[in-house]
Amino acid sequence: MSDKFLDELRRQVYVTPTSFLELLSTYKKVYQERKKHVGEARMRLSKGLDVLAGAAVEVAKLQLQLKENQPVLEKTLIEVAETKVIITKENNDAQEIKKVVSVEEEEASKSAAEVKSVKDGADAELAVALPALEEAVKKVKNIDVNNFYELKGVGSPGPSIVKMFEVVAYMFKAPKPKKPTDEKKKANDPDGYFEYAKKEMLSNPK
Known about the structure:
Structural class: mainly alpha
Order of helices and strands: HHHHHH
Distance between the termini: 154 Å
Largest sheet: none
Helix content: over 70%
Radius of gyration: 60 Å
Shape: rod-shaped
Strand content: under 5%
């Protein structure tokens, strides 16, 4: 560059001692900075290589483990496939059961509605019957036992008396009486309920 400067401008370049020392100082500074930079890069590279070497060792271990576990892995894959088939079948069965349950649930809902309707009707009828029952109980409590003795002495009972004792025999689950053979009794008591009542019920009305 000094020769070029001399050829072009016809001027000589001189380096003074101070400039030379500054040049050396600058060179030293640049050298230290580059040395530090290269050292840091070298350290990073070294650490990176150590990491890569460690990773290579771990990868080799994993490859060995994978190779050793390959039969287990294949067996597991087969079991998973079989389990998947079973789950699919069970799921299909569950869907079929769900359809049946849905139908049964619908029928049960209809039955429940019908039962509720019957219950409501029975409750309504019971509400009407209860006062009549209470009235009947009162009348039963007011019955005079002597009336039964009078009934025992009836020779020719009317149809209402015979029907009454037929109902009483039914309520007490009495056995079916024998039909009378006497023509007169047979005319008034064809099934024998009054005669049965006189022997089994009116003998001791209390």
